[in-house]
Design goal:
CATH superfamily: Immunoglobulins
Largest sheet: 6 strands, mixed
Number of strands: 9
Helix content: 10-25%
Distance between the termini: 57 Å
CATH class: Mainly Beta
Number of domains: 1
Length: 141
């Protein structure tokens, strides 16, 4: 029974790895994602606007498989990146902008917070060479 279970787990893991790899796409050469606002070190109100920047790549909604495009994911207070070979989870710390949005308004509790941007492709999977912004730190009043 244990051997059957172990074999099944190995088969499932291999199958998942095989199905994830076709979802990984190349990023445009020299692609860069960054924050237009806020800036690193800014003090903001509890509800504030974030504007995303992107160069050498285009923005396309989730589900649109077009070369050299992707959509934004906002990482909030994330200490460790999720597995970048699989679709990004949708959580309070990994916020998806699958509609192709390039700005948002969010509300955070008072204190110090980190923000980072990560591009995902049509299937919410980061590109082969991840397009990841510098992590910034803000203070919410």
């Amino acid at each position: 029974m244990k051997t059957l279970l172990a074999s099944s787990l190995i088969l499932l893991t291999t199958s998942l790895a095989a199905t994830a790899s076709p979802l990984i796409t190349e990023a445009a050469e020299n692609a860069e994602v960054y924050f237009i606002s806020p800036n690193d070190g800014d003090e903001v109100n509890s509800t504030f606007k974030i504007v995303f920047g992107l160069s050498n790549m285009g923005v396309a909604p989730a589900g649109v498989n077009q070369k050299n495009t992707g959509h934004h994911h906002l990482l909030v207070n994330l200490d460790e990146l999720p597995n970048l070979q699989f679709p990004l989870p949708a959580t309070d710390q990994v916020i998806h902008f699958g509609g192709g949005q390039t700005e948002t308004e969010i509300t955070l509790e008072p204190g110090t917070h980190t923000l980072q941007l990560l591009m995902g492709n049509f299937a919410h999977v980061p590109h082969k060479a991840p397009v990841l912004s510098k992590k910034i730190t803000i203070t919410v009043q």
